[in-house]
């Protein structure tokens, strides 16, 4: 979310920079935590079926006396990891504070963010429980060899047949993004028979915009090449981003199209594999947003640091890049762009989506803007889903994904309404003090 100036201390995913990350494999791997747990188990020699001997008291004694050293090794390793993570957290925080300085805008927004989170805490607790304990969530799947190259999978309970897939890039002002922020969306779409892959990426100051786009592109590539192993349909992949994530995802898609013209690195996925792009509350022309962000508390100095200097703003502005490509005829066909925005969004004005759609239409790309009257930057993504009942944005997305699928459409008609997670009074108060 773009004006979330109140910086978040790097998430647990940030800490992964402290240890080497295994390279992406050709299939989904299990959680690193599970692998670590498995590595701590003593390796017991199997007893041949011919011997069929019982474990004696001395056998049990041998196992018991061998356990303490293993526990000590595990404890030592945990202490070492904690020390490394603490060091990394401190270093990244100091770097971020150097950019932020002492500014009243981001301090007041930080306080507002704390109050906002407290008011929505009843919902966050329930979503958090689902995220950590649901058997339908596969957390922290490795998709690359860089820090935070992880993604979460949200799987429908019905595993029959191949399911459509949404590759989702979360927002967070390029500073506080984290894959778990997409858990509410992942849960709601999974309940409607859609697989969701929430892609994590390096935040600033751990990485700058080029790192974020590379990470998102690597995550998209991994989904395209491996999702069939988890019941996903590789011919029905949709790319979606929210706020800063919408910007990053759009950059990844447009830059990939340029690569396919022979201007870049090796190709591991293609824009033709995307059925459509869904952009929620995104900003696509950074040249027009620098001053706006500065007034909102995302100061020019830190924003230019994230974007690798003023000279890079054009390159990382999808709208500008698209307009520059209007004279080319070798660009591969881009998928349809569906841009969702609230007219009451003060973090990123809805004009950002309107102008981007016009640029896309100028080069023949099908694009559409869906405006929600009076909705703010977080209404569509947080308050409305937490309210329960019929979620207008969710229904619009599901309708597009299930278009032409009569069976899924019939299920959508009788789908139960989502239950409320936060009382209405608390939602209204949160909306009023929201820093977004």
Task: Write a structural description.
It catalyses: [protein]-C-terminal S-[(2E,6E)-farnesyl]-L-cysteine methyl ester + H2O = [protein]-C-terminal S-[(2E,6E)-farnesyl]-L-cysteine + methanol + H(+). The chain contains 15 helices and eight strands. It is an alpha/beta fold and 436 residues long. The chain has one domain (119-433): Rossmann fold. α10 (318-324) runs parallel beside α11 and α12 (379-387) packs antiparallel against α15 (424-433).
Please specify the SSE layout and strand pairing.
Layout: H1 32-39, H2 57-100, H3 104-119, H4 121-133, E1 137-142, E2 150-154, E3 163-169, H5 183-190, E4 195-199, H6 209-226, E5 232-242, H7 244-259, E6 274-280, H8 290-296, H9 300-306, H10 318-324, E7 337-342, H11 351-362, E8 367-372, H12 379-387, H13 392-401, H14 406-413, H15 424-433
Helix pairs in contact: 3-15, 6-7, 10-11, 12-15
